């Protein structure tokens, strides 16, 4: 989906006989074509929320045409998926920058420039000329201190996160946890490493200093095990934070 009219003619679904695409129709001369006025797909429709199937736990979305469930396993990097029931396309990711989705009355999913006012449906049995209704004016969002747009380190989708919270961010799209910026994960990793080293030194010192009494007092072995387990747990958390994915801040909200 490149820039220009050539990019707008690219199909949304590859290797399909039906072309789910759109192209500018500023030069359409077909008098017999039907003219329709539709609105671009709103933010409450794109993309539909992921749902987990109760049988196998696969990520599913609802088809926007026939309401059937679509399995999107292995397809999350795509922008749209095809329904097996009605063969229509349903978006699962936001449109690329500078583009927007439009649903033709024949249920064909089109993609066009955000500034397009008139497009044509490419289906041979439709050929509608679609006049795009202006997007509704949304009230300005009140800015919150520390609220920024963050690009997920796992799925690379964008979500909002308050950077003033010293907590790990969970992406609302893929539900995976990442660190917003490298500082938080690196700081936690170093802190757990230091605590683990201190616990390990204490465990070794206690073991060396009390091994002579361990034969007569069996409870000392419990202290040995607890100290070494604490050190091992701290080192494990340190590795977890040091290998954590990093989500980068794209800018303020």
From TrEMBL:
The chain crosses the membrane at residues 190-214, 220-240. It is a multi-pass membrane protein. Its main location: membrane. It catalyses: a 1,2-diacyl-sn-glycero-3-phospho-(1D-myo-inositol-4,5-bisphosphate) + H2O = a 1,2-diacyl-sn-glycero-3-phospho-(1D-myo-inositol-5-phosphate) + phosphate. Keywords: Endosome, Hydrolase, Lysosome, Membrane, Transmembrane, Transmembrane helix. It holds the Pfam family Tmemb_55A. Its EC number is 3.1.3.78. Residues 1-23 are annotated as: Disordered. It is found in: Late endosome membrane; Lysosome membrane. Residues 1-11 have a biased composition (Basic and acidic residues). It is an enzyme of class 3 (hydrolase). InterPro entries: PtdIns-P2-Ptase. It comes from the Eukaryota. This is Phosphatidylinositol-4,5-bisphosphate 4-phosphatase. It comes from Bombus vosnesenskii. The gene is LOC117230173.
């Amino acid at each position: 989906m490149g820039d220009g009219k050539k990019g707008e003619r690219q199909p949304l679904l590859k290797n399909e006989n039906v072309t789910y695409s759109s192209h500018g129709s500023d030069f359409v001369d077909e008098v017999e074509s039907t003219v329709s006025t539709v609105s671009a797909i709103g933010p409450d429709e794109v993309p539909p929320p992921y749902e987990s199937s109760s049988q196998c736990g696969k990520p599913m979305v609802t088809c926007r045409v026939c309401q059937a469930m679509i399995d999107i396993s292995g397809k999350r990097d795509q922008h749209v998926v095809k329904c097996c029931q009605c063969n229509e396309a349903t978006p699962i990711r936001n449109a690329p920058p500078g583009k927007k989705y439009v649903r033709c009355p024949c249920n064909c999913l089109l993609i066009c420039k955000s500034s397009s006012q008139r497009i044509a449906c490419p289906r041979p049995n439709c050929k509608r000329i679609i006049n795009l209704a202006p997007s509704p004016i949304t009230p300005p969002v009140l800015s919150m201190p520390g609220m920024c747009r963050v690009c997920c380190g796992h799925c690379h989708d964008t979500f909002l996160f308050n950077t003033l919270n010293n907590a790990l961010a969970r992406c609302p799209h893929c539900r995976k946890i990442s660190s917003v910026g490298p500082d938080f994960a690196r700081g936690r990793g170093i802190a757990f490493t230091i605590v683990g080293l201190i616990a390990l030194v204490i465990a070794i010192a206690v073991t060396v200093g009390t091994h002579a009494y361990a034969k007569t007092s069996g409870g000392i072995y419990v202290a040995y095990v607890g100290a070494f387990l604490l050190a091992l747990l701290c080192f494990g958390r340190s590795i977890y934070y040091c290998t954590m994915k990093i989500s980068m801040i794209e800018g303020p909200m």
